[in-house]
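Standup notes, protein team

Yesterday: finished cleaning the Janthinobacterium violaceinigrum set.
Today: Pilus assembly protein TadE structure.
Blockers: none.

Input for Pilus assembly protein TadE:
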Amino acid sequence: MANRRRRQRGAMLIAFSILLIVVLGFIGLALDVGQVIGRKTELQNLADNAALAAAAELVGTPDGLAAAVAKAKSSAADRSVWRRRMEGAILSDASIRFASAPDAPAGDWHAAGAVPDPATALFVRVDTQANDPALGRVATAFLGAWSPALRTLDTGARAVAGRTSLHLTPLAICALSASAASPRTNAALLPAVELLEYGFRRGVAYNLLKLNPHGPAAEHFVLNPLGRPGMLGSPLQVSEPSVLPFVCSGTVQYPHIGSAQVHVHRPFPAALWTAFNARFNQHGGSGCHPVTAPPDTNIRAYPNAAANWWMTNTPDAPSALSTGNPLLSVADPEANATPPGVGSYGPLWSFSRAARYSNPRPAGGYLPFATSDWTKLYPAAPAAPAAKSSYPTDKSPYLTLAYQTAPTGNTGVAQRRLLHIALLACPLPAGSDVLARVRGIGRFFMTAPASNGVLSAEFAGLASEGSLAGPAELLR
């Protein structure tokens, strides 16, 4: 009996020993696998943060690419995600690549210095497995005892980030000329001459829905907010329900236009003018929501019969009148063609001042005219408009407290009244849906809420496409 008990105890000891070895093996396996999973999580966080930091710098220029590389490396070097937040990581150039699309094939991802066209390199990929030195190598504690090949394991992570939108209103109009910068000679101003940008005068408010440099009928278009530049999209993409939210937000869902042609649909629907007025805190009936389409921080309409109006005459409209063949603002003819009516110019210089032409463009930007030049810039009968002494000397009326009204009930966003409008190379072919080339992007400040057939906006110069890029997003 005693021998039997001893044999049972011996068998149990052997079984326990075998079980202990198995349990210890599983524990070791779990520890080693946990190390690998932890390292991969750290690397994914590192790659995500570095890609987002780099994408924020991509504005379509070589300098932007260089800044993106520097930001990615700086993000990785921060003690935020690497090795239990105890040290930063060193990203090498080999791990940072750029392409024109987030799903570009492997051969189309290039180092910053080898990008074929920086203007289209708007997406960045951070791949830690391509890094030198290696970041994903994990030394195992138990697996190496089973096999020398398992003494170290490699892991890695990849992240792609970029911008998928532009702050561009899906309304397009014709450029009034083919020149990005040209002089407007006015004998009363010589030797100074006024700057024209694609035919538009800074400081003058235009009715954007009543212009056409090639005929007497207004030309305006929907800029397809969902299509791909270079091709015609489907009719659904330019339908009123599809376009409405983009008019509200002032964006389009593609990151780049460049030299490609874009799909435009004529005319811009009359039913959508109310969407522009969300910027004035007028959301009722607009189809816009105050969260995705907030008002401006200043919703005061210009002109008006306010006691402290900054002009010597009160304009009869919030923009210069349009007439003639071609259909142009009365502010466009030269000084020897005095526009009819005192109020024909609408409000002047509410956001931007007229600028002096110079070639080449001054490094610090075009110089503005003084308010004392108003009578020479804007002749009218019986008297030209002039700036009152209350016109602010150091900033625009839009930024001056005396000419501001804050929205109530909703939080305002500064410069929401500033529309970025594609200026097209016109005339365009006949038809409702055509491809058009974008000459440039104009900055237009809404002087007052829109009404049916009237969108009054003061020209404030040109905007570079890179400056209109939407927020950087993590895509893959």
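Follow-up from PR in the comments: The longest strand covers residues 433-446.
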